[in-house]
Design goal:
With 516 residues, this protein is an all-alpha fold. It is built from 20 helices and no strands. The chain folds into two domains: 232 residues, no CATH class; 189 residues, no CATH class. InterPro entries: PolySynth_Transporter.
């Protein structure tokens, strides 16, 4: 009887894990589909916007966004990661702190708006730039609120409504930006579509959270204080990571010029497409790893290794596509942005490395090593990266002229990410990789080298579009032939998602007479 009971319990645990995995796959595909649409809209709007804005104005736009975002990092509070780790296990806990956190963030916003005004007055920024930065400040508050709202829904596994909301609000954002560009409205109006889209998203997300989680507005200072203490390492980590791509642009605008920011941001707007998987990683992988961590560290390690394998399978070909087609993609932005070609190539490996560090960070967090992640993030983002920028930007700007400062910023980011990746992988140790992952990486590297060799020799005479198409086909054929990507496993994922979390019925157990 004990053996039968243990077997039944084991089957129940396997069933629970199967349900969690299939639910995560389904949510990932839903979110991934919506993100593909939103990134397609963003990818289409940015080139149109650059045709209406000079590199200098485009640089001002992005500098104001980054400048305000640096200040509003304070409103993160560490809630997003805390929600994904704790609310995944007890959804009712969300109402204990969320209402109070909203009031805290509103209070911080008043203080931060005042600080922005004082700093810009001291710098002597024009009234136009001041207005642009302050409108972006309001947008940053809404972005932080929506990140927390989304984390609540992801923790519960209810993402269908959020996926639709993402698409609708991105249409509002894109249409608004395009209208501002076509009508050639003053620069501060460029931030208004961001505020409008994020405000709509917040209203929709609040209603979804009330429906699926039973979220209620409640003020509980004691509960909020406990959350802030528990979320401190998450806040410090998020603050450090949020400076990536923000602090760099701020320094570049101060030590270089707004034109340098424009070229750098133009390249970033294209290479950033690789980050389409970033929300899926956080929204789907973290809740899955959180529940696995409650069972065993080994299970979390297995999930981390397969996540690394999956993200490399997607991000490496995207990186190759960006590198090989850099002149073509930058050409879509207009002739004024030609200096961004090499910047784009420098930026492209950054995102592959970033996904590796995100997965390592998730493993360390879920195995209660979050302070180690915090220390590494602070070292890389707040110490090493700014130091590299301060050293490289003025020197490369003086040595190479236009585009040199932006190249210094791109190189700083890449060197910092390489260092962080090495540190994170070494901290995970044997849990980071297994033979299967190493073989996959080696096979992918062979295919990449082969494609580059073909690009420089046989395919060099071809025009851009035919050359890129042929290289894409060669890459796909190469990874499939060598087995770096396994079609059977991809089909299995799709099959799991189509079952919508309902496992195939198991055969009825055979009746066995009790032993006398």
């Amino acid at each position: 009887m004990n053996t039968h009971s243990e077997s039944t319990q084991q089957n129940a645990q396997e069933h629970e894990r199967s349900q969690e995995a299939m639910g995560a796959v389904r949510n990932g595909l839903q979110l991934g589909g919506s993100l593909l649409v939103t990134y397609a809209i963003a990818f289409g709007i940015r080139p149109l916007l650059t045709h209406y804005l000079s590199p200098e104005d485009f640089g001002r736009f992005n500098w104001a966004d980054s400048f305000s975002a640096i200040f509003f990092i304070a409103t993160n509070l560490g809630l997003e990661m805390y929600i994904r780790k704790e609310v995944s296990r007890r959804p009712e806990h969300a109402s204990d702190f969320f209402g109070t956190s909203l009031l805290v963030r509103l209070g911080l916003t008043v203080v931060l708006m005042g600080a922005l005004t004082l700093v810009m007055s001291y710098r002597g920024d024009s009234p136009e730039m001041r207005a642009l930065v302050l409108v972006f400040g309001l947008a940053q508050l809404l972005i932080m609120l929506n990140a927390s709202m989304a984390a609540l829904l992801h923790a519960k596994g209810k993402v269908a409504g959020l996926s639709i909301s993402n698409v609708v609000t991105k249409v509002v954002w894109g249409g608004g930006l395009l209208a501002v560009g076509v009508l050639r409205l003053p620069l501060p109006w460029l931030a208004v579509p961001v505020v409008a889209s994020e405000a709509i998203k917040f209203v929709v997300s609040w209603q979804l959270a009330r429906q699926h989680i039973g979220l209620v507005f409640r003020v509980d200072l004691g509960a909020m204080w406990k959350v802030l203490k528990a979320g401190l390492p998450y806040f410090l980590t998020a603050a450090a990571l949020a400076t990536n791509g923000r602090l760099d642009i701020m320094i570049l605008g101060m030590l270089g010029s707004h034109e340098e920011v424009g070229w750098y941001s133009a390249a970033w707007s294209i290479s950033n497409i690789t980050f389409a998987l970033n929300p899926v990683m956080g929204w789907v992988l973290l809740p899955l790893m959180s529940r696995a961590a409650a069972r065993s560290e080994e299970e979390v390690s297995v999930i981390a290794r397969r996540a690394l394998e999956g993200t490399l399978a997607v991000t490496v070909p995207m990186m190759m596509l960006i590198v090989m087609g850099a002149p073509l993609w930058i050409g879509l932005l207009g002739r004024d942005y030609s200096l961004a070609v090499n910047l784009l190539r420098l930026q492209s490996p950054l995102f592959v490395l970033a996904f590796v560090t995100m997965t390592c960070g998730s493993w360390l967090t879920m195995t209660n090593r979050e302070w180690w992640v915090t220390g590494t993030s602070i070292f890389g983002s707040l110490l090493l990266n700014p130091l590299l920028n301060l050293l490289l930007v003025p020197r490369m700007y003086a040595a190479y002229g236009d585009g040199g400062g932006a190249a210094g910023t791109a190189l700083s980011m890449l060197l910092m990410e390489v260092a962080i990746t090495i540190i994170m992988l070494s901290r995970m140790g044997s849990a980071a990789v297994d033979r299967r992952l190493l073989v996959m990486i080696a096979k992918t590297a062979v295919v990449c080298v082969g494609v580059v060799a073909m690009d420089r020799t046989v395919l060099a005479p071809l025009e851009d579009w035919p050359r890129i198409a042929v290289e894409a086909m060669l890459y796909v054929m190469g990874v499939l032939t060598l087995g770096a990507v396994r079609p059977g496993e991809v089909l299995a994922v799709v099959k799991l998602a189509r079952r919508r979390g309902n496992p195939e019925p198991e055969p009825a157990p055979i009746a066995v007479a009790p032993t006398p």
